[in-house]
Each structure stands twice: as C-alpha cells, then as structure tokens.
Amino acid sequence: MARDVQITFDCADPAGLSAFWAEALGYRLQDPPKGFESWEQALDAMGVPPENRNDASAVVDPDGSGPRLFFQRVPEGKQAKNRMHLDVRAARWLEGDARMAALEAEAERLVTHGATRLSRYEPAPPLNTGHIVMADPEGNEFCLD
Fold first, then answer.
1. pTM above 0.85?
2. Which residues share a beta bridge with 144?
3. Of the CATH numbers 3.30.720, 3.40.50, 2.60.40, 3.30.230, which one belongs to the domain with range 6-73?
4. What is the pLDDT of residues 111-142, one digit of tens each?
5. Which of 76, 82, 93, 118 gives 20 to 30 Å between its CA and that of 132?
C-alpha cells in the first residue's frame, strides 16, 4: 500500500520559507483548523504566545495531489550541502533551447522571491536535459529541471 508523504524542512523562519515554497510550487498555505477563520484566531484559542507563532507552518497542493510541505523552526542553521533535494519540474516536457529558456525564466522569477541561483548545467548526452541549481532563502538547494 502506498503511503502519503510529508516533506519537512528545518528552518529559522517557517512563515517566510513556507511563503517561498508556496510561490515556487503553486501551493497555498494550509487552511486553519475547522471552526477558525484564520491562523491568528486558532493560535489565540490554543493559547500559543506571540513569540511561538512562527514555530511551524505548512503549505499544501491546492489540487491535493502533491505532498504537504511542513516547516519547523530549529535553533541551528544549515550546516552543509543537502543530502536530499527537491527537483522543481519547471520545463518537464521541453527540450533544448526552449527548455533552458523556460528554466532561466523560472530562475529569474524565483530570485525575485528570495532564491539564489547557484549553477547551470547545459544539456548533455545521454538525456540532453539541462538544469539549474538554486537555493531557497535559507540556503536549501533545489533544482529547476
């Protein structure tokens, strides 16, 4: 039986990083619990003090098909290169110059939302698909492919 997957990010700013990934993936902030019109209202009712209101955040695929991304505040910063990363399929069905142009456009868009461009890999045999390596606002590497 297949299982649901949630991808969890340790980070310094859950609200900021969740906003970035919602923009990058076309996701949206997870709705507050039933019975609450906003997260502020829910956190008030739960007695969460203001200094802990950015301890966690989550974004979800509006269609419900993609995994939930969960962001949790941790005290330590990122230490080294990710051992696992996300591939954002920004030009999935394109090839050659059209593919690289689409990836470049997406890289530029994400830079305006806080991403950093790290490197570009040109199309090469055997797959002939290039990609661009990026980092999110907290330095987590991901690829545009």
1. yes
2. 88, 132
3. 3.30.720
4. 999 999 999 999 887 877 899 999 999 999 99
5. 76
